[in-house]
């Protein structure tokens, strides 16, 4: 077990920032900001106590706004990261939604060994992801050339793309991502929401995703079992199931809604957003 060490500023820009918490295990874990409503400033430096206890070095990459890390400093950071990981035995990436895209975008620069991306996007530009309408407010600022993942192939990358297959946009993103990165595989977490880890997080077991992240070749078994077991007590899971089945299987939708209410979502309706 290793004590956490002070942060070191690796890149301090107007748009992007990267901070390092050193470790002595020989592994580097790289994490990324996720999208937050109204984000217009850097969030404080933070690193996982789980990874710190294991002695892993942690590189946290943050962006000032919800720009998917695509801005005037993207190429500058990309250049700064090349060679940075040379002293590490393995480099592992972890990102949620926008952060999953960021992990894919910078995996090549950091020579990443493995990646776990939870509900990532392949792009938010209409020409590259015409099915994606959830981020219309941010899409006009997304440079499709600078943000083209096909230009950053990371051929040695292995890992998992966790997603809710019943969210059609996330399913489409996952298919495109796995077509671009042959070493990645989709892992369906049905009715897990966006991000698809909501059932796992609600069960207090986000650590299973962290554990997979630092595997040389991440395996989905424990993640799938944890999601399956956790859904029994997850009202959001049952609400999402009810919404999906409302027009297809109304009897099942009614049972799912009743289950959601029994789990602490009194008065919930199929039209309500899931908890």
How are the secondary structure elements laid out?
Elements: E1 8-12, E2 16-21, E3 27-32, H1 49-53, E4 57-63, H2 74-81, E5 90-96, H3 98-106, E6 114-118, E7 158-163, H4 168-180, E8 184-188, H5 198-202, H6 207-213, H7 221-230, H8 235-245, H9 250-262
Parallel strand pairs: 3-4, 3-5, 5-6, 6-7, 7-8
Antiparallel strand pairs: 1-2, 2-4
Keywords, please?
Rossmann fold, 8 strands, 29% helix, 2 domains, 9 helices
Quick structural overview:
By secondary structure, the chain is an alpha/beta fold. It has 2 domains: 224 residues, Alpha/Beta hydrolase fold, catalytic domain (Rossmann fold), CATH 3.40.50; 42 residues, no CATH class. The chain is built from 9 helices and 8 strands.
Description:
This protein is α/β, with parallel strands linked by helices and 275 residues long. The chain has 2 domains: 8-231, Rossmann fold, CATH 3.40.50.1820; 234-275, no CATH class. It is 29% helix and 17% strand. It has helices spanning 49-53, 74-81, 98-106, 168-180, 198-202, 207-213, 221-230, 235-245, 250-262; strands spanning 8-12, 16-21, 27-32, 57-63, 90-96, 114-118, 158-163, 184-188. The protein has an 8-stranded mixed β-sheet with strand order 1-2-4-3-5-6-7-8, sandwiched between helices. Helix 3 links the parallel strand 5 (90-96) and strand 6 (114-118). Helix 8 runs antiparallel to helix 9 (250-262). The model has no long low-confidence stretch (mean pLDDT 94).
């Amino acid at each position: 077990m290793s004590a956490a060490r002070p942060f070191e500023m690796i890149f301090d820009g107007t748009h992007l920032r990267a901070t390092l918490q050193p470790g002595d295990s020989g592994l580097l874990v790289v994490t990324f900001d996720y999208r937050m409503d109204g984000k217009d400033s850097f969030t404080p430096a933070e690193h996982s106590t789980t990874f710190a206890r294991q002695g892993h070095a942690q590189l946290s990459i943050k962006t000032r706004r919800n720009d998917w890390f695509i801005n005037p400093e993207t190429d500058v950071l990309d250049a700064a990261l090349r060679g940075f990981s040379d002293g590490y035995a393995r480099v592992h990436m972890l990102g949620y939604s926008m952060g999953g895209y960021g992990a894919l975008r910078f995996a090549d620069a950091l020579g990443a060994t493995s990646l776990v991306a939870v509900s990532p996007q392949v792009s938010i530009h209409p020409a590259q992801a015409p099915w994606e309408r959830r981020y219309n407010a941010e899409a006009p600022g997304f440079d499709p050339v600078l943000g083209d993942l096909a230009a950053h192939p990371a051929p040695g990358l292995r890992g998992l793309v966790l997603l809710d297959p019943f969210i059609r946009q996330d399913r489409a993103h996952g298919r495109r991502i796995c077509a671009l990165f042959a070493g990645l595989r989709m892992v369906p977490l049905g009715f897990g929401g966006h991000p698809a880890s909501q059932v796992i997080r609600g069960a207090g077991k986000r650590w299973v995703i962290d554990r997979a992240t630092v595997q040389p070749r991440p395996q989905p078994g424990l993640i799938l079992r944890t999601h399956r077991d956790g859904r029994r007590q997850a009202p959001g899971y049952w609400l999402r199931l009810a919404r999906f089945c409302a027009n297809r299987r109304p009897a099942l939708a009614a049972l799912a809604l009743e289950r959601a209410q029994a789990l602490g979502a009194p008065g919930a309706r199929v039209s309500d957003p899931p908890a």
